[in-house]
Inverse folding.
């Protein structure tokens, strides 16, 4: 664990000194995670890829500020979440003007992934977007980082630069809304799970 | 314990995010409340479902030449294609809209600058100042924030004030209002730059102040107030004032001019 961390710090150090190979390694190492967060935030593979590209461009321009792995990954994931939020806001604002719909819920149904968008054609294709589309922006980023990406609450707070108590507030609301969204969109799935689950 | 509170706690409990002492109180409530017991069951199912869906609905892998594309862009010194992509998709949907003006409070996140200050590399701050002043070129009609790398690299994206929860750390902030016109990137007029020993909870001028009325009249409405921070946790007041001075010099903000006058 510690060795891996040292390796990563080493990699960033090399990239900072202009080693293109090391920067390429950084992209390999963190690209999928960044792309996954962006995808879960904006719900569209193509947009997620654009956001990921922007993340690494900004990373390159900001390399000199990092001296530890911790601040590096927090910064990287925070930037990913923030750029995704920018994207959602821009889209929400434009849609709000045209549809004149109130509320701060980010509904991006009209940006649901198209058929070429995802290599997987799983039965839950586009499901995250359908569910997380019912969340506010703050709920969505907390839900993505905590429940989909599995970061511990304290780490989510570190990434988002807010207090853990704030994370918990958004998290509780997000989970309840996700539950309601599941009942609405995937009642069959819940039923199957209910049958599988032991009574406790 | 009342049910609404119990239900919020349950949502945390299912993910192991509820402290132990609270959990025992919650369990006591569940003993006597069927409704909340049923809620717990559904939340547990929901959690399993979320895991299933999350593991199944995954993005397509990044293209094999993704790293090459990024390196190509940065080594050519180009700005990214992202902004164009965003605006393209935005404009397709946009109707002719009157210019929308918004007050944006920017809290500037500047780990990089902090590091410069901490290492006492004053020439770095000086260089940053030069680059910033050159690229800003006046503030009267606003600056296209996202097109100024010297801002964009150091500060994080503006956040709406009602969604803003800064940590109790030292830092620098700025206030601005947004001007948005069709066919152009949004521009920001910086209205105030300040520094604080503790940003959270935010009490900065002119947001929490008698000047707030004037700020809002410059802006339009309270809903359009945005904020972003530049955290400088280990900084001295002088460190922060140095950064603040660079921003004031670059933007000549209205409230820095009239404050106290
Ligand atoms: Zn109850």
């Amino acid at each position: 664990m510690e060795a891996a961390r040292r390796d990563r710090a080493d990699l960033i150090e090399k990239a900072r000194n202009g080693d293109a190979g090391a920067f390429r390694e950084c992209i390999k190492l963190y690209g999928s995670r960044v792309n996954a967060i962006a995808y879960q935030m904006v719900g569209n593979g193509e947009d997620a890829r654009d956001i990921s590209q922007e993340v690494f461009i900004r990373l390159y321009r900001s390399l000199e500020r990092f001296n530890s792995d911790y601040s590096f990954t927090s910064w990287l994931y925070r930037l990913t979440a923030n750029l995704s939020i920018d994207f959602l806001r821009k889209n929400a604002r434009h849609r709000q003007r045209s549809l004149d719909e109130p509320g701060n819920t980010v509904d991006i149904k009209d940006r649901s992934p198209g058929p070429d968008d995802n290599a997987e054609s799983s039965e839950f294709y586009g499901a995250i977007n359908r569910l997380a589309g019912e969340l506010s922006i703050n709920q969505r980023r907390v839900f993505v980082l905590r429940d989909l990406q599995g970061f511990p609450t304290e780490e989510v707070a570190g990434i988002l630069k807010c207090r853990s108590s704030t994370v918990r507030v958004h998290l509780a609301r997000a989970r309840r809304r996700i539950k309601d969204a599941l009942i609405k969109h995937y009642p069959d799935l819940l039923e199957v799970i209910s049958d599988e689950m032991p009574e406790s | 314990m009342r049910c609404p509170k119990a239900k919020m706690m349950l949502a945390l409990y299912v993910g192991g995010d509820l402290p132990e002492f609270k959990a025992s109180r919650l369990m006591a409530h569940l003993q006597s409340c069927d409704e909340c017991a049923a809620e717990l069951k559904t939340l547990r199912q929901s959690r399993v479902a979320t895991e299933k869906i999350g593991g199944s609905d995954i993005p397509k892998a990044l293209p094999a030449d993704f790293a090459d594309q990024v390196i190509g862009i940065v080594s050519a010194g180009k700005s990214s294609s992202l902004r164009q992509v965003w605006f393209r998709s935005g404009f397709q949907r946009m109707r002719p809209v009157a210019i929308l003006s918004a007050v944006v409070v920017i809290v500037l996140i500047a780990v990089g600058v902090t590091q410069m200050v901490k290492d006492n590399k004053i020439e770095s701050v000086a260089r940053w100042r030069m680059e910033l002043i050159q690229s800003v070129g006046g503030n009267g009609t606003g600056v296209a924030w996202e097109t100024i790398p010297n801002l964009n690299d150091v500060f994080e994206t503006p956040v709406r004030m009602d969604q803003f929860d800064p940590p109790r750390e030292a830092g620098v902030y700025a206030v601005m209002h947004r001007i948005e016109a069709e066919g152009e990137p949004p521009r920001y007029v910086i209205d105030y730059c300040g520094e604080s020993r503790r940003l959270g909870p935010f009490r900065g001028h002119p947001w929490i102040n008698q000047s707030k009325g004037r700020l809002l009249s410059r802006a339009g409405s309270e809903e359009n107030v945005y904020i972003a921070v530049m955290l400088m946790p280990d900084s001295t007041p002088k460190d922060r004032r140095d950064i603040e001075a660079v921003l004031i010099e670059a933007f000549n903000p209205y409230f820095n001019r009239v404050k106290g006058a």
